[in-house]
Design brief:
single chain, about 170 residues, mainly alpha, Endonuclease III, domain 1, 2 domains, globular, disordered N terminus
Length: about 170
C-alpha cells in the first residue's frame, strides 16, 4: 500500500483508507479529494507517509489492519518517506518490484500489482492471483505465466480484462 509524493495513481491502492482512519493517525489533511477523501498534492502525501512510518503498529491495527500488515505498511511508508523507495512512473518496473520485495511482507503479487496500478506498467502480470488463474480455466501460476507470454508487452491489460470478465462486471 504505497504512500508516495507522486502521481494520483498510487492513491488507488489506498482508497479504502477513509478520513476517520487518517484522523486516527493524526494525518487528516484539509486538502481532500471529493471522490477519494485522500490528501492531494505531493506535500500532503509525503507527510502522510512520514506519519504512517512513525505510527505504532497498534495505532494502525486499530484501523482493522493486521499487525503483520501494519508492520509492512510502516516499513513501506518509511522507505518512501526517507527517499529509499520512490514510485516514480519513470522507474524501471523490474527494479522497483525487486526493491519492493525486499520489504518484509511484500511478495511477488503485491509488487506486480503496484507495478501495474501505480506505475501503469502495461506488462505487469501477477501470475499467482487466484482470480486471474480461475479466469484462465484454473491454471497453475506457471501455466498462467506461460500462456501470458504471447500477450507481452500488454499483459496488465489482459489481467484487467480477465478480472473484469471473471467478476461479471463486463456487461
Amino acid at each position: 500500500m504505497p504512500i508516495r509524493p507522486l502521481s494520483p495513481r498510487t492513491w488507488s491502492l489506498i482508497r479504502s483508507w477513509k478520513a476517520p482512519s487518517k484522523r486516527a493517525l493524526g494525518c487528516a489533511s484539509p486538502a481532500l479529494s471529493r471522490h477519494s477523501r485522500l490528501p492531494l498534492g505531493p506535500f500532503s502525501v509525503s507527510k502522510l507517509a512520514a506519519r504512517i512510518a512513525r505510527a505504532s503498529s497498534d495505532q494502525i491495527a486499530r484501523m482493522g489492519i493486521t499487525r503483520s500488515r501494519a508492520q509492512t505498511l510502516r516499513a513501506l511508508a518509511g522507505a518512501m518517506a526517507n527517499g529509499a523507495l520512490g514510485l516514480e512512473t519513470q522507474a524501471q518496473p523490474e527494479t522497483l518490484m525487486a526493491r519492493l520485495m525486499e520489504i518484509s511482507g511484500i511478495g511477488p503479487w503485491t509488487a506486480s500489482y503496484i507495478a501495474m496500478r501505480v506505475l501503469g506498467w502495461p506488462d505487469a502480470f501477477p501470475e499467482s492471483d487466484l482470480g486471474l488463474r480461475k479466469a484462465l480455466g484454473g491454471l497453475s501460476s506457471r501455466q498462467a505465466r506461460d500462456r501470458a507470454e504471447r500477450w507481452r508487452p500488454w499483459r496488465a491489460y489482459a489481467v484487467m480484462y480477465l478480472w473484469t470478465h471473471a467478476s461479471g462486471r463486463n456487461e
